[in-house]
Amino acid sequence: MNEGMDRTPLTRDFFERPALDVAPDLLGRVLVRAGEDGPVELRLTEVEVPAGGIDPGSHALRGPTPRNSGVSGRSA
Predict the structure, then answer these.
(1) Which residue blocks in the chain are alpha helix, DSSP H?
(2) How far apart are CA 33 and CA 41, in angstroms?
(3) Relative to the CA of 73, which of 1, 2, 40, 59 has its CA 20 to 30 Å away?
(4) How far apart are CA 24 and CA 72, in angstroms?
């Protein structure tokens, strides 16, 4: 599996930046999830950064809802 790719875990600091800065830095990164049948890996080839409260295509346009809260089934 793509042995040459960097699988260094990203720190919280990596994500505590503006989304428009984080998104391009995620391109090409490999996400690894340990599963019952072994690891599942995928390389990010596309990212999307909606503009939140000003983007009509964003689920965040109308504020917190169960769908965009980040916690399944609960609103923020």
Answers:
(1) 12-15, 19-26
(2) 6
(3) 40
(4) 27
Nearest CA among 63, 30, 61 for reference residue 45: 30
Q: Answer left, alpha or beta for residue 2, where phi above 0 means left and psi between -120 and 50 means alpha.
A: left
The one-letter amino acid code at 52 reads: G
| CA neighbor of 32 nearest in space, from 49, 44, 47 | 44
Selection from 37, 38, 59 nearest residue 48 by Cα: 59
The residues facing 33 across adjacent strands are 40
Please give the model's pTM, rounded to 2 decimal places.
0.59
- Residue pLDDT, tens place only, 14-49: 999 988 899 999 999 998 889 899 999 999 999 888
